[in-house]
Amino acid sequence: MGLINAFNIGTQGLLVHSKRVETAAKNIANVDTPNYTRKIPLLSSNQDQSFATVLSSMGMGALNGSSQMGGVNFDGIIEDPTPGAKIYKPGHPDADENGYIRTSNTNVMVDITDAHLAQRAYEASLSVMTISKAMAVSALEIGR
Predict the structure, then answer these.
(1) Are strands 86-88 and 72-79 parallel, antiparallel or unpaired?
(2) What was the pLDDT predicted at 69?
(3) Could you give the C-alpha distances from 32 to 72, 88, 106, 108, in angstroms and in order?
(4) Tell me: the pLDDT tens digits for 47-62?
(5) Which of 20, 43, 30, 23 is nearest to 106 (CA)?
(6) Across-strand partners of 100?
């Protein structure tokens, strides 16, 4: 893996995990908002993780420079299909024809944990960028 590839992976990680933190914060902020549906970020790997790819990387594939680029992608946001609880509040502006409102389906503990994990992943991506920078500086020092 080259230094440019390491910088690209680190940059992708910073962008993706900042969106994860942002999504968790939005969910936590709307925990008491009626009819709010929790948002879930979708992530995918840039790397082909098929069995054939793993076998080829163990053999001549890795020596020929055909190793796959790693990293993570942000594929969008979906809504959590779990319904929130129904509460009878006939005077509420968001009440349905029967007088019920649906509470948010956000679980604060789940979203705090998601935010914490995303923060740690962000810090790991930042470390990748810092280490890659140090390696580039060391390579330049050797060339002097």
Answers:
(1) unpaired
(2) 65
(3) 32, 15, 9, 10
(4) 766 667 666 766 644 4
(5) 30
(6) 88
Q: Which residues contact 126 (CB under 8 A, 6 or more apart)?
A: 10, 14
Q: What span, in angstroms and rounded, lies between the C-alpha atoms of 16 and 13?
A: 5
Query: Which residue type is seen at 122?
Result: Y
Check: CB of residue 9 under 8 Å from CB of residue 70.
Answer: yes
Residue in the block written with tokens 């933190």:
21
Q: What integer is the mean pLDDT of 23-35?
A: 94
Residue 61's alpha-carbon distances to 4, 28, 97, 113, in angstroms, are 20, 46, 64, 39
Do residues 87 and 103 lie in contact, with contact meaning Cβ atoms separated by under 8 Å? yes
38 by Cβ neighbours in 10 Å (0-12 / 13-18 / 19+) ranks as buried
Contact between 27 and 109 under an 8 Å Cβ cutoff? The reply is: no
Please give the C-alpha separations between residue 38 and each of 79, 109, 120, 123, 128, in angstroms, as whole numbers: 6, 13, 22, 25, 31
Which pLDDT does position 46 carry in this prediction? 80
